Amino acid sequence: MSDLDRLAERLGIEPFYHDIWGNRRETSDATKRALSAAMGYPAGTGEELAASLHAVEDRAWRRMLPPVLVIDEGAPLNLALAVPAGLEDAELTWTLTEEGGLAHRASLRVGNLPLAEQRVLDGVAYERRTVSTRLPPTLPLGYHRLSVVIRPQGVGGTLEGGTVLIVAPQRCLTVEDVVPGGRTWGIGLQLYALKSGDDWGIGDFDDLGRFAETAAGLGAGLVGLNPLHALFPADPNHIGPYSPGSRTFLNILYIDVERVPELAATPQAQALIASEEFRQRLAAVRATELVDYPAVSALKMPVLEALHATFRALGESDARREAFEAFRREMGEPLRRHAVFEALHEHFYRRDPSQWMWRTWPPAYQIPDSPEVQAFAAEQAERVAFFEYLQWEADRQLGTAAERGRRAGLPIGFYRDLAVAAHPGGAAAWGESDILVQGANVGAPPDQFNMKGQNWGLAPLSPVGLRESAYGSFIAMLRANMRHAGALRIDHVMALQHLFWIPADGSDGAYVEYPFEDLLRIIALESRRNRCIVIGEDLGTVPEGFRPALERAGILSYRVLYFERSADGGFKAPHEYPAGAMVTVTTHDLATFKGFWTNRDLDWRARLDLYPDEAARNKDIWDRGVDRWWMLQALEREGLRPVRYPNNEGSQPFSRELMEAVHRYLARSPGRIAMVQIEDALGEVEQPNLPGTVDQHPNWRRRLGLPVEAMAEDEGVRRLAEAVRSERS
């Protein structure tokens, strides 16, 4: 094995992969060099390669303990200890300090530990000795600290090391733990799409609370949400929920301004809202079919600034001030760093739009802990506090909406959606440059839908950085997205095992491996702690053995009716779906059922010239007709084909009865959760997002045709809810 191959192997760069057609694709040397450099280990020259390989291979020897160790609940502790040779007579004392503070200690001779390996580094001999012991039977699940001190005989001084010991359950919280009978159903929506009588041109957290109450009244067990991640307040044109600035914080445009308590004590804001010019602008954004994000931001931000001025004047003993300070303490340094980024991004972008990416800022401002950044934060303390205030108020309103759903009878509540990665120009990439990689983007290899592959323009997490930080940022991100939620959907969950990286230099992409078992255990631990069910979006190319591993961890699979096919091409029967799954007819990236039946998505592709030629378009149209035929056959087998469809001919028109029958069909599956998309419940023909487009199609902007206040009494919504509810019970 060459030195470059050894370095790539140590960093988790996979040597090859098989594409969707079964072809083996080798990872080129150029790709290995580019991805190694992206992780901080340059390999462009022989000297760089030697230095990087030396650093990677020697690191585990030069420190006594690894930065983190993740083990199953009840498992023995098996730990490799790296120490200088010749310490056989030295006394070793280990201290295990539980998360709650209780400490356990024991001492022994180094020479009593089995010798596993030896190595000489720069003329110094090292040994690796193994510690195998039963952990205290009372040791709880959680994040503990293991410290080791070695005192050599007859020599002054000590050697010290430490590691984070994570003790985790083997399985996540399950639907059976929460819902009697272990089967339920829910309604999925894009929050921005909600309308109400008092919205400000976009769905907000108050609308979400109303929707949660409606869903509970219809008998649903949960409400599914698109990602609520923070975007870029300084630039409201950046709207993609799956391309966030940070996955740990919230999109502040979802704040309902009129539900912020400071409004009642801010005459300036009241006068602004009551002004004729403001009311006209507000009426205009309410009347649009598409969310006008810049117009919404221009309405909300000045009012929120006025409300923050009122908030700053509150006394320190005021309940709101105390709650804000408690939120600050709970969120800690990550909140402050996020707010500093928002203030900096606003500062540089407004001064010069070409400085949108933080990598274009003056070098000193690209480093969060630089003296210049600290000076800026001090000078702009009020602006930084404003962005902290917005995160606090967004969190409060989301929590209120979740509580409304629980009180109304949602047993699970909200399921939140975790995007696969963050934007390289956002707060997370700036604040955690040792964790988020800048020299590569996340994407997907070529497949039948994207012959050239996909580059999603997102920054991958570094597997090396994750381990070195004891998974701290990953844990914080899970907690943030399980907050005010009863379930979490992890987008492109295969990223827990490996993720397709595309080098910034234009080299071909390759898969990079992640510490899969560690990440699964941590997810299970946070799932139990936060009482949050976990769903893994496992669509696309799924590695062999991956789904069984998710099943063992109690993570639900994600099954879409359109894709679940038998060997002959027909749709799988309901009983063929796995019990450990969330099932749905469609998703935000696919045609609504009405759009599917009427070829609306294919019409869009033709209109936007997304087909390579007319033959490809004609094939899609033919295949869709066959799919309609297959679907009517499947419904007939289940006794669900509506009477108005006299045969299985696929050219028959769409009807609400047909849509109800299809949802009944899927609801009969043993899948733990069956989801209905709100667009289907309302009979919408347009889908929220059309993959492969950016501005050509109104992605992430469509508003629903019916206001939330009218949904509970809408006949179509009620009939579809009754159809699914009756099959689930």
From TrEMBL:
Record lineage: Bacteria, Pseudomonadati, Pseudomonadota, Alphaproteobacteria, Rhodospirillales
Gene3D superfamilies: Glycosidases
Protein family per UniProt: Belongs to the disproportionating enzyme family.
Protein's recorded name: 4-alpha-glucanotransferase
Superkingdom per UniProt: Bacteria
Pfam family, one: MalQ_N
All residue ranges annotated as the MalQ N-terminal beta-sandwich domain in the record: 65-169
PANTHER family: 4-ALPHA-GLUCANOTRANSFERASE DPE1, CHLOROPLASTIC/AMYLOPLASTIC (PTHR32438), 4-ALPHA-GLUCANOTRANSFERASE DPE1, CHLOROPLASTIC_AMYLOPLASTIC (PTHR32438:SF5)
Reactions the enzyme catalyzes: Transfers a segment of a (1->4)-alpha-D-glucan to a new position in an acceptor, which may be glucose or a (1->4)-alpha-D-glucan
Single GO MF descriptor: 4-alpha-glucanotransferase activity
Record organism: Azospirillum brasilense
Keywords: Carbohydrate metabolism, Glycosyltransferase, Transferase
Signal peptide, first to last residue: none
EC numbers, comma separated: 2.4.1.25
GO biological process, one term: carbohydrate metabolic process
Keyword Lipid biosynthesis applies: no
InterPro entries linked to this entry: GH, Glyco_hydro_77, MalQ_N
